[in-house]
Amino acid sequence: MTDTSEIRDVALVDALGERYLSYALSTIMARSLPDVRDGLKPVHRRLLFAMRQLRLDPNTSPKKSARVVGDVIGKFHPHGDQSVYDALVRLAQDFAARYPLVDGQGNFGNVDGDGAAAMRYTEARLTEVAQALLAGIDEDAVDFRPTYDGEGEEPVVLPARFPNLLANGSAGIAVGMATSIPPHNAGELCGALLALIDDPKATPDSLLAHVRGPDFPTGGVLVESAEAIRLAYETGRGSFRVRARWEAERLSHGLYQIVVTEIPYQVAKSRLVERIANLLSEKKLLLLADVRDESTEDIRLVLEPKSRTVDPQMLMESLFRATELEQRISLNMNVLDAQGVPRVMSLKEVLQAFLDHRKVVLERRSRHRLGEVARRLEVLEGYLIAFLNIDEVIRIIREEDEPKAVMIARWSLTDVQVEAILNLRLRALRRLEEIEIRRERDKLAAEQAGLQGLLDSERKQWRAIAKEIKEIGDQFGDANPLGRRRTTIGAAPLAVEVPMEAMVEREPITILLSEKGWIRAARGHVEADADLRFKDGDRGRFLVHAETTDRLLLFSTNGRFYTLAADKLPRGRGFGEPIRLMIDLPNDHDVVTLFPHRPGRTLLVATSDGRGFLVAEDETLAQTRTGRQVLNVAGAVEAKVCIPAVGDHVAVVGDNRRLLVFKLDEVPTLARGRGVILQRYKDGGLSDIKVFAKADGLTWKIGERTRTETDLDPWLGARATAGRLPPNGFPKNQKFG
């Protein structure tokens, strides 16, 4: 029968909030964020501890990974076996971990992005780095807590003789926060730790003299400015730009090829080659002719230039911009501190937290050893008394019913001493030599005094910690092939202008925009009288000659400029696509004009009520589909004209058939607004505008002929006046043509 006495009415929002908060805290504390002291997440810590219990030391035979995973999920980590195995695999991959904690035997994946073999086929054991993390765990160096089922215990944190957090890095996403720490060089970290011990008030610059930047297992070249690196380490947030290592390999007849020997961290080589090949097929890397993967154990990607005249630096710059040959690695040192509180730390704070942890470990191990020494000295004192009275001891044991009590009363021995004497085997009696006992006692007494002096002196403690760190630096520093810096520290690259031709094939095209708003591109420069096909009931409106490398500017009646890439327009035999699918052009507005962008040019824009201004064409480029508002319109007023401002005078004609000519200097240059009055009207509005050179005269079209008027004095006036009737023969539609 169900007991309903504990059923409570709780608001859904409160119940969800409470449970989601519990989930969020669990994710932050027990999954995603590493501990600043040992640099490990719980699953990694449990993996190493379980492997230690299985005695998988570097000098022993490895065991099946399935055995390790089984122990971990059975004793410590009640999660899926595949997720635990994935964590084990990453600890063994020398291209993912700068200092692998697991020595994997078998297929543990590769830099191409291929996955590891199933756990039943691979074997694993600990590395020397992992042993350094576990050193002293049996000496009361850290706290233990019950496992999830209460049947055993697991360490809260590892003693961590090795600075693992920064050396191997970490990445994870929790609820509302994330961490991203790239790997570093252990020798450099040890140098910075020693500097911090010598000067606890060390500045970030003094620490960066040792820690020069990340050191990735896959090498590469760090191309970030020194100021950006300093700011990132000082705040705990930032990013680092890493490029592939390459060299130009000279061939015969003046030819050459680019050979890439190192790629950025966490970039799969096979996907990188596939990406470059796809860009080649799409004709977006015209400086590159071919890419080949000639890798064996070492990476060797061969890039063939289009011709011998291609500059290698320009070729690589185009590839850095378009492919994963350049990566930006983020830095977000969001970790759990010693109290289990997540926060973003600077480089100095992370290093200091590691030193503080080592100090705690040193004190706990010293006290543990001090207790062992005290117990052994107590036993030795008892042995010494037994040796001096060996015959009486033997008699008491043989004849007395309660030898323990008799011995305690006779020689004032402690319970521990008597138990040690009574537990001696007969064969050990011959080893009870006074000299040996006194020698061991004196040795332990000296050790006891040293340990007590260590605990009483903070200076001696830091000296001992510095000695340990120096040993780690010597063990995993430059003298060890594993410790040599792999990522070169390079200078921030200079801005190299890569022409558009390096990314898109340059060829002539014709842009066709129909009355109903369908746009497409045709190969070559097609003339207006060519046989062009449109949908039934539709016809051409704009025909623009351009090139595939051009950016197109579209000006609308709403006063907005929209930017289109010419090479992105639909091509082929179809009718194209509706322009409104490419830009957010409202249905109640229409296209005024369409033309290729020319940097440095100035445009004249005007509204239907005769207001306008000059605007730099570079200021009209838009980065989004919504375009850029330049000419402000409202109500029935619409944008009417957009033309290049090439000349020194402006001719304006209104619907009222009045022509006005004035100097271009009278029109201001703005970035946005309504502008100034160009021509004043009583009735109607603006019909057309033209910018021209007065010395060449004002021209307009009459049918197939062009007429030029050089005597413009009757129509010259000040801006914002009404103007006069145009010359005889001016088009009746009030357009300059």
From TrEMBL:
Topo IIA-type catalytic domain mapped to chain residues: 33-503
Residues the record marks as site: Interaction with DNA: 41, 77, 79
What's in the keyword line of the UniProt record?
A: Cell membrane, DNA-binding, Isomerase, Membrane, Topoisomerase
What GO terms fall under cellular component here?
Answer: chromosome; cytoplasm; DNA topoisomerase type II (double strand cut, ATP-hydrolyzing) complex; extrinsic component of plasma membrane
Give the gene symbol: parC
Main localisation: membrane
Q: Does the keyword Transport apply?
A: no
Among InterPro entries, the record links this protein to:
GyrA/parC_rep, Gyrase/topoIV_suA_C, Topo_IIA-like_dom_sf, Topo_IIA_A/C_ab, Topo_IIA_A_a_sf, Topo_IIA_dom_A, TopoIV_A_Gneg, Type_II_DNA_Topoisomerases
According to UniProt, the name of this protein is DNA topoisomerase 4 subunit A
What one GO molecular function would you report for this record? DNA binding
The family note in this entry says: Belongs to the type II topoisomerase GyrA/ParC subunit family. ParC type 1 subfamily.
According to UniProt, residues marked as the site described as Transition state stabilizer are: 120
Q: How does it sit in the membrane?
A: Peripheral membrane protein
Q: Where in the cell is it found?
A: Cell membrane
Query: Which function does this protein serve?
Result: Topoisomerase IV is essential for chromosome segregation. It relaxes supercoiled DNA. Performs the decatenation events required during the replication of a circular DNA molecule.
Which EC class does it fall in? isomerase
Subunit and partners = Heterotetramer composed of ParC and ParE.
The Enzyme Commission number assigned here is 5.6.2.2
Reactions the enzyme catalyzes: ATP-dependent breakage, passage and rejoining of double-stranded DNA
